[in-house]
Amino acid sequence: MDNDTLTIQLLRGILEVETEILNAIKCPGVLSTKQTASVLRTSGAHIDELRRSGDLVGVKVGKGYVFTANEILNYLVRREKEERDEL
To answer: Domains in the chain, ordered, with CATH?
Structure first.
């Protein structure tokens, strides 16, 4: 796959995630651990693991953590770049 195709796929994926984020949130740009897990199609425990490792930056609010839509997108871009670099 060439770089243009990979870029187009990445942009499509980002747009899809942005749409899911906007549909999932009540407070623009901020998602709970549960909402973040839903958007990333994983578990809350995995989101906590990503947060503890520093891969996904969250802010403690009350008893839980929240994540910005921008941080989630940045995480996805970093992951995509890492996976591409491994090829």
So the answer is: 3-86 (1.10.10)
**Per-residue confidence at 53, pLDDT binned at 50, 70, 90?**
very high
- 4 near 10, Cβ under 8 Å? no
Averaged pLDDT, 53-67 = 94
Q: Residue 62: which residues within 8 A CB-CB, separation 6 or more?
A: none
Report the C-alpha gap between 57 and 72 in whole angstroms: 8
The rounded distance, in Å, linking the Cα atoms of 30 and 11 is: 21
- Report pLDDT digits (tens) over 18-29: 777 766 655 567
Q: Specify the long-range contacts of residues 39-46, CB closer than 8 Å, at least 24 apart.
A: 39/72, 40/72, 40/76
Angle at 19 between CA 16 and CA 25, to 5 degrees: 135
